[in-house]
Amino acid sequence: MKNKVINITEAVDRIPDGASIMIAGFLGNGTPHNIIDAILAKGIKNLTIIANDTGITGIGISKLIAAKVVKKVMTSHIGTNPETGKQMMAGTLEVELVPQGTLAERIRSAGAGLGGVLTPTGVGTDVAHGKQTLVLNGKEYLLELPIKADFAILGATIADTFGNSFFNGTTKNFNPVMSTAADTVIVETAKIVEPGELDPNIVMVHGIFVDYIVRSNSNG
Questions:
Q1: What is the mean pLDDT of the chain?
Q2: Residue 122 lies in a domain
Q3: Of 107, 45, 41, 44, which is closest to residue 74 (Cα–Cα)?
Q4: Percent with pLDDT over 90 in the chain
Q5: What is the pLDDT of residue 220?
Q6: Phi and psi at residue 54, in whole multiples of 5°?
Q7: How many domains is the chain partitioned into structurally?
Q8: Burial of 53 (0-12, 13-18, 19+ CB in 10 A)
Q9: pTM of this prediction?
Q10: What CATH number is attached to the domain comprising 78?
């Protein structure tokens, strides 16, 4: 069996400049903070970030925005991080705003191998600009295309060495759906156990989706 447990330095060494990265979390909750710090330390740049939000100033994804290593974000809101809006208005950061539910469904569509999702959300607004619309049973829908990334980085509470992962409480958020929609999935976890030690009834991300596992603060 492949050894999936590596240190954080080894993990970020796999991420090149220009990569697209899904980063799980909700305002830093369930976010892989140590991997983000390691990305900054390595100086990886020109990133496309796909995330629910761009964090709170000084926390999580906001650090990447502040360091100006992100060229584009696809996100549901930016209001908790003023720097994102500042860079967007200056034209130095491309921001694609996606309604939160639509963002989740577009990611899920990629993971499920679907061609997209039909949603009434955004019909008649700027969200609909340039998108195909369909009318079904007299109701108009937008066709929203799948979102996939080169990498997904997740923040778990417990993972076994195969990658089966548990996320406590609301840290679950975008973690499970993002695990299915990236070429390479890296789980940062506070605790690593052996296969069989994690109750299968609480597994929220299955190890088959996970490529690498790192323990928080496992620098090498």
A1: 96
A2: no
A3: 107
A4: 96
A5: 47
A6: -105, 25
A7: 1
A8: buried
A9: 0.95
A10: 3.40.1080.10
Domain region containing 41: 8-114+146-215
Q: Taking a C-beta distance cutoff of 8 angstroms, is the pair 76, 98 a contact?
A: yes
| Encoded tokens for 175 | 């973690």
Q: How far apart are CA 178 and CA 156, in angstroms?
A: 13
Q: Is the Cα torsion angle 146, 203, 168, 218 positive or negative in sign?
A: negative
| Cβ neighbours, 10 Å, residue 124 | 10
**Rounded CA gap, 76 and 28, in Å?**
14
How many residues are recorded in the chain? 220
Q: Measured over all CA atoms, what is the biggest interatomic distance in the chain, rounded to whole angstroms?
A: 59
Which phi and psi angles does 167 have, rounded to 5°? -125, 120
pLDDT of residue 218: 61
The token pair at 46 is: 């020109």
Q: Report phi then psi at 46, rounded to 5.
A: 55, 40
Q: Examine residue 49 and state whether it is found in any structural domain, yes or no.
A: yes
Q: Is the pLDDT of residue 24 over 50?
A: yes
